[in-house]
Amino acid sequence: MIANKKSIVVFCLLLVASFLNAQSKTSPLVSKGDKSYAQLQYSSAVQYYKQAIVSKRANLTADQKESVSAKIADCYWLMRNYDSAAAWYAKVSSVAQESKAQVQYRRAELLAANGEYPGASSGLNGLSGYESRSAGYKKTDRMKADSADWTIKYLDGINTNYFREFSPLQVDAGLIWATNQPKKFSKNGIMGWDNMGYARMLSVGDTTSLNAIDVPSGRNLIDRKALDPKFPKKLASHYALSDADLLGRVKIPASLIKKVKSIDAMATPIAGIEKYSYNLAHATYNKAAEKVFFSANIQDKKLKNATRTVAVVEARKDGSSLTGGKFILTGKTSYSVMHPAIHPGGTALVFSSNQEGGKGGYDLYYSTLQADSTWSSPSAVQGVNTVGNELFASFAPDGTLYFSSDANAGLGGLDIYKSSFKNGTASKPEHLSYPVNSSYDDFAMTFSADGKSGYFTSDRLGSDDVFKVSYEMKIVIISGDVISSETGKGKPGVKVILYEKDENGNWVKVNESATDADGHYSFKGRPNREYKVEVIDPMDSQTVEFNTDNNFTKKSVQTVTLRDKKPVVLPPPVPDTFRYVIYFDFDRSKITKESEAILDQVIAKLTENYQYKCSMSGHTDQEGTAKYNLKLSSKRAENAKKYVKTYAGFAERVNTAFYGYAQPVIQTKSRKEAKKNRRVEITIAK
């Protein structure tokens, strides 16, 4: 959850060269706190600030107390004591304009640390560069989807609840890691940032000696009294050494001394680098060249009582020792160069720096090995840097780049990502699923040659610890049968398409197949996904939506029954009524040849069934008088009846009617079109 340049520098080895004299009475407590803060002595600053709040002599106003509370919260944040930081940020209702964005970010991150992702997402609204992170907090379930692939273990043999163990590196069969356990358990050998020891590197020759156990539950709250409303004016307990009171001696718990002694009995300090004072950590190893690169504070003796930035050292691995060490990438007093990661090819070195011109905080840079064995001027790695911090780079044996970021979409704090890396450009970062990533800081991943096991660092238990990780992709068999409702059996040759819902809620086609001879289909899917199967058949298509939540080893069976039963074809119903029409020439009632053919059909229908009866109605166009047209329409109807009677001999089943021009079917003055009105309509019915 590191989100400030100073916090990264301190955590990653930035040194405060000497302590202030806390007994000085010549300056107000707040001034002493400010001076300690400026020199990155956050542990000391916290004590001065807290005393100023409760001191009657300091006589702070309400606004001044709130300002000092904000500084205490900042100190705890920078010491990565997030539980206490949250408690103190809660006391701050208003902050200076220049600090609002920083406090807004930190408050949002503290919500994320507690799993309050909706609030964390809202808390980042309006912060430029954090849009992806805000959106990611709305999709944390998706980021945990591959959790079944990962198994993590806690290295009980080297971890403590008090000190920080971080940046593991596999070297052959052994393991190197960094720790801030003091070399001597007293005020000697500790730094003012958090009253811990300067970071140094330890190693074991055989990782099988490490005791890997299930991850303990819970979190070690370093500043319990700061979180307890019953003690609002009490100084925080320093039993965990994280915020030890510089006004008194640090008492080391006996249990901690015993734990560290057991670690010392198993682990060995890295030999050959004794000449480097202050902090050493985060190593990377190139086996082909037998070279080790690591971070170290610059050694300039002129920097007494000043901040020492971090640079990169190159050394040769000679058995279990490092020899010929030299600084190869150095920043300036204003910025650091740290966390080196050597590419397996040995010609590219990726590292973090907070130099000017970056996107924000610490960015990833790279240098290439030159013909004269020097390293080129740094260039920014393309494709991964953000307004936040990109840190703790490492390369897997296959060349995959791993790093941590606190501004990309994640679960909170620093999360681990991976990218392909080529010629200074990295692919879009891929977030590693929970339980590797958590709502706290997760970083410094190292993998074995086969890519199936490794180690990483997390502070999810309250302090940085090294965890062992193993990876095995879990597959869910999505299968089923397509059943025909026609036969009741599996239907072969039916197209089946598998879709997966992406993080934006869109269905994406992932595979296509056809049912076998028994109507069976099968796909390989993943746990914790939303899928749908679409079955496409000429007679029917169906879609089934489902999920594979917790289907880590089981099959997900989706059987579909097609509605493909052929319908029974019935003969068309026999109508009860039949209608015919015959037409006449203008002012004529004579049956035409065309009309005779239709009247023959009438005769046939009447012959078909003796129950049929026939009615004929005569009509004319609208030329002439009504009286004349009534007579003409009557002749037309009678002539039609006479034709039927002549051929059939059943005049008693035929009746006639006539209407003149009273019922036209078309209103027109055209004599040609008016033929539609010169007609006899014939109806046959039972």
Protein model, in words:
With 686 residues, the protein is an alpha+beta fold. The protein folds into three domains: 5-471, TolB, C-terminal domain (Neuraminidase); 476-562, Immunoglobulin-like (Sandwich); 577-685, 2-Layer Sandwich (60s Ribosomal Protein L30, Chain: A). It contains 13 helices and 37 strands. The strands form ten sheets. Strands 6-2-25-24-23 form a five-stranded antiparallel β-sheet, with no helix packed on it. Residues 1-27, 185-189 and 222-250 have low confidence and may be disordered.
Question: Secondary-structure map with pairings?
Answer:
Elements: H1 5-11, E1 15-16, H2 29-38, H3 42-54, H4 62-78, H5 82-89, H6 100-113, H7 117-123, H8 131-136, H9 140-143, E2 150-155, E3 165-171, E4 174-179, E5 200-204, E6 212-213, H10 224-227, H11 254-266, E7 268-269, E8 280-286, E9 291-297, E10 307-308, E11 310-318, E12 321-329, E13 337-342, E14 348-353, E15 363-368, E16 379-380, E17 390-395, E18 401-405, E19 415-419, E20 421-422, E21 425-426, E22 430-431, E23 442-447, E24 453-458, E25 465-471, E26 476-484, E27 495-501, E28 507-514, E29 520-525, E30 530-537, E31 540-547, E32 555-557, E33 560-562, E34 577-583, H12 593-608, E35 613-619, H13 626-648, E36 654-658, E37 679-685
Parallel strand pairs: 26-32, 26-33, 35-36
Antiparallel strand pairs: 1-10, 2-6, 2-25, 3-4, 4-5, 5-7, 8-9, 9-11, 11-12, 13-14, 14-15, 15-16, 17-18, 18-19, 19-22, 20-21, 23-24, 24-25, 26-29, 27-28, 27-30, 30-31, 34-37, 35-37
Helix pairs in contact: 2-3, 3-4, 4-5, 5-6, 6-7, 12-13
